[in-house]
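Help needed: design a sequence for this.
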């Protein structure tokens, strides 16, 4: 896999993250995000429990997660690198573990769709990033954090 393909995948995963988590980042949009999740859960007749969305702490932690993911996504969009792609791949598998634990604990099966997407993005991104790293296609410079605007 070449470096430019890997960097395109890193950028694409960042766009996906912005779309999925952007609404959780701000206090005035998190309610809409929770309503959308609740509507999806109900419309599909899914099982499991949804989180209580009427507490300050639920909104706070959703905002914290959303804002960190938005910033992380913007960094990957503006300065994609193999190092950031590798770190994001690891983060995706950590998020997947959390989603799996929530499902086992009785969380809404709406998480299954998100879990499948996380695992898929993690697998695709991991494959192209680690392939580019193995091929040596700019790997040393990239891991050291050099910029790739010219690619």
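Sure. Designed sequence:
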């Amino acid at each position: 896999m070449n470096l430019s393909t890997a960097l395109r995948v890193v950028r694409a995963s960042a766009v996906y993250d912005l779309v999925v988590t952007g609404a959780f980042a701000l206090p005035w949009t998190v309610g809409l995000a929770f309503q959308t999740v609740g509507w999806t859960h109900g419309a599909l007749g899914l099982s499991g429990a949804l989180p209580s969305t009427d507490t300050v702490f639920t909104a706070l932690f959703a905002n914290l997660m959303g804002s960190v993911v938005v910033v992380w996504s913007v960094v990957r969009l503006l300065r994609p690198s193999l190092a950031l792609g590798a770190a994001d791949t690891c983060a995706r598998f950590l998020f997947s573990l959390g989603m799996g634990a929530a499902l086992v604990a009785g969380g809404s099966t709406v998480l299954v769709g998100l879990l499948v997407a996380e695992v898929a993005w993690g697998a695709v991104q991991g494959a192209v990033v680690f392939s580019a790293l193995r091929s040596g296609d700019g790997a040393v410079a990239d891991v050291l954090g050099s910029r790739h605007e010219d690619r």
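The chain has one domain: 3-143.
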